[in-house]
Amino acid sequence: MKKIFSFLLLLSAGSAYAQTHLEQYINSALSSNETIRQQQFLLDKSLWALKEAKSLFLPNVAFNGTYTLAGRGRTVDIPVGDLMNPVYKSLNQLTGTNNFPQIQNQSVLLNPNNFYDVKLHATYPIINAELVYNKKIRSQQYDMQKVEIDIYKRELVKEIKIAYYNYLQATAAIRIYENVLALVKENERINTSLFNNQKVNRTAVVRSNNEVTKITAQLNTSMLHQDNARSYFNFLINQPLTSPLLIDSIEGVPDPHIVNDTAINKREELVKLHTASAINKNLIGLANSYKIPKLNSFLDVGSQAFDFKVNDKSPYYFFGVSLGFDIFSGGKNRYKVKQAKADGKVIESQISNTEQQLKLQVSIAANSFNAALVNYNAAVSQVASSEKSYKDQLRMYKEGIALYIELLDAQNQLVSAQLQENISLYDTLIKQAEIERANASFIIQ
């Protein structure tokens, strides 16, 4: 018995969390939409840019090799003959020998001839404020791209919901017209029978025929609206335009309390602007980084010699550090800072304006939902009274105490009331989707 109870508990839990067809369509669209895929590619690009910024903090090692041949050109004259020949002459006289020959002055080329130099050249930034700010900016740009994707997803969800409800609305209208068509065909049959029995004149038959034609045309129009709604919905979810849609059962209007959530702090548009403001602050820091000296180190390890010789004297290393900062740049750096600060003021103004726009959007969406709810309740009441009126007119017409024109009037009122109820019902759902978009209450997976 315990196992049976556990099984039923799991079954009920699974059904409680079962997704509706609309939720499944939304999840499918978010994973297959081409625009989202394009945005994802841009996100990947931002991620690689961030990794590139991080890599600038690591040592850079490169291999360099040169070989030079030189002839003529500038030389350095070394007067070794003028310096040493007098000394050598004196030594020869003192020794009575010619052991110290006379030598010529030397002229050495400045450019090395038949000379090679191969080395590993490594550089490492010790202090570089530009790299620090660049990394911060790249990271924030990556976050902004993620927000950009969420903005598009939220807008897509709203459009999908509205398109789906428009399809359901058209489908429900078709059912209404099909029911009405059955009624007017029955009226046509009754009027034809009464005319054959000389109970009514030909006008009643002609009017009933016209009603059949009119309702048939309206039914065909609703079918075209349904086809268009289905095609647009399938376009949004990246399916073939003619794919059939699974229909959820609509049990009633949304919870009226959804209008109580008027917060706008969850809107991605504000998050994006605040991220842009943070980026601007780092851009100001980047522009001011000229005040901080740059300290870099380098190391060369290699071999160099003439005639491709490699011996114990050819290997070498060369290490050093470099320090540099701007002393005078004609005000260029200060102007960059002022430009960045001006951009910051623009972003602050955009944040303030966007907040007001979003608050207005939430307010309008809430008021529209309340109005749609009032219209729906009025339409429900109108359908109830119209159904009663039509039944009474149909009964009296069959008894011969009411004119056909009165029956047609009651019938048209019933059709209009049913269509208005259908429109009002799905209008409340559409307004719910707009509220979810306005206050960002829909949870995006």
Automatic annotation (TrEMBL):
Instruction: Report the leader peptide range.
Output: 1-18
Q: Give the principal location in a single coarse category.
A: membrane
**Which cell locations does it reside in?**
Cell outer membrane
UniProt entry tagged with the keyword Signal:
yes
SUPFAM superfamilies per the record?
Answer: Outer membrane efflux proteins (OEP)
Per the record's keyword annotation, is Iron included, yes or no?
no
UniProtKB keywords: Cell outer membrane, Membrane, Signal, Transmembrane, Transmembrane beta strand, Transport
Q: What family is this? A: Belongs to the outer membrane factor (OMF) (TC 1.B.17) family.
- The name this protein carries in UniProt is TolC family protein
Q: Which organism is it from?
A: Chitinophaga hostae
